[in-house]
Amino acid sequence: MSLSGTRIGWIGTGKMGGPMSRRLVDAGATLAVYDPVAANVKALVAAGARAASSNQDVIVDADIVISMIPNDAVLKAITIGEEGIFANLARGTIYVDMSTVSPEVSAEVAAAAAAAGIDYLRAPVSGSTALAEAGKLTIMVSGPKDAADKCADMFAAMSAQHFYLGVDDQARYLKLVINLLVGTTGAVLAEALTLGRKGGLDWAQMIDVIGVSAAASPYIQYNVAPLKARDFSPQFSTEQMVKDSRLICEAGASAGVPMAIGDAMLQTFLDTVEAGYGEDNLTAAIKLLEQRSGLDEL
């Protein structure tokens, strides 16, 4: 598909936002980008994007504005804060936030967008930085249906598939649901592999068998090679998993859903960060469990 003639402003060009926005440049979009870290913008400028000087500058002449930012506080600041973009966005502009944030803050932003005549799409993603670079993410979309339809080609440029889920914050909840499954899988995998080592299993053989067993999932299979190599390079860091685990547990509490397993997951990753592995991939919880079990580093 071609995005030629589509004018997009992008806020947040970090680990995920950088490769995602690059896909839009490659598809022909006219792209303005802003990130407080200048180095994050450099590669996109080299690819043909315009470096904006601020959030306000990035939205000039944009038909669609996208953000990929770290948390609730930043989402509120860039949209409805004292220098928020909603005050200057033209009515009918489409604003797409692709971050992982709480449904509560997303609903607050949605109310402000509706009052300002802005079409607000929630479009969080599932996938790693490698999938972002390849344009193979999964995108979950909710908000005004006509706006989602207008963004279909844009989503297709960044994803293997995208799903429209409804007019409200359904996409926010589905992202938390998926990350609950990812996080609990990571935490249980750490316990399982530690138990296997204590039982005398060969590390690589154990992982190979798990990868083809009834317990295997795409997430486990994706991690077979790096786990065998003891490679904990951050595709999704433990610190990021702590942030998302908190969002999951808070959403469960707000909805009246018991989150005993989610709470245990959060504690596992909090302990992993405290042990010094916050910047490692979330699978680094295995190192914490090994230490607690008296196992030497492989």
Features:
alpha/beta, 9 strands, 298 residues, six-stranded parallel beta sheet
Concise description?
The protein has helices at residues 17-26, 38-47, 55-58, 72-79, 103-116, 129-134, 145-150, 152-158, 170-198, 203-211, 218-228, 238-255, 260-277, 285-292; strands at 7-11, 30-34, 50-51, 64-67, 94-97, 119-122, 125-126, 137-142, 159-166.
Count of DSSP helices?
14
Low-pLDDT regions: none
The helix-strand sequence is: EHEHEHEHEHEEHEHHEHHHHHH
Cα distance spanning the termini:
47 Å
Fraction of residues in helix: 40-55%
Class by alpha and beta content: alpha/beta
Strand content bin: 5-15%
Major pleated sheet: 6 strands, parallel
Rg, please?
20 Å
Order the strands across the largest sheet as they lie in space.
Answer: 3-2-1-4-5-6
- The geometry reads as globular
How many β-strand runs?
9
Mean pLDDT: 96
Polypeptide structure, described:
By secondary structure, the chain is α/β, with parallel strands linked by helices. It is 53% helix and 13% strand. The chain is built from 14 helices and 9 strands. The chain has helices at 17-26, 38-47, 55-58, 72-79, 103-116, 129-134, 145-150, 152-158, 170-198, 203-211, 218-228, 238-255, 260-277, 285-292; strands spanning 7-11, 30-34, 50-51, 64-67, 94-97, 119-122, 125-126, 137-142, 159-166. Helix 9 packs across helix 12. The longest helix is centred in the middle third of the chain and has 29 residues, at 170-198. It is globular and about 65 Å long. The N and C termini lie far apart (47 Å).
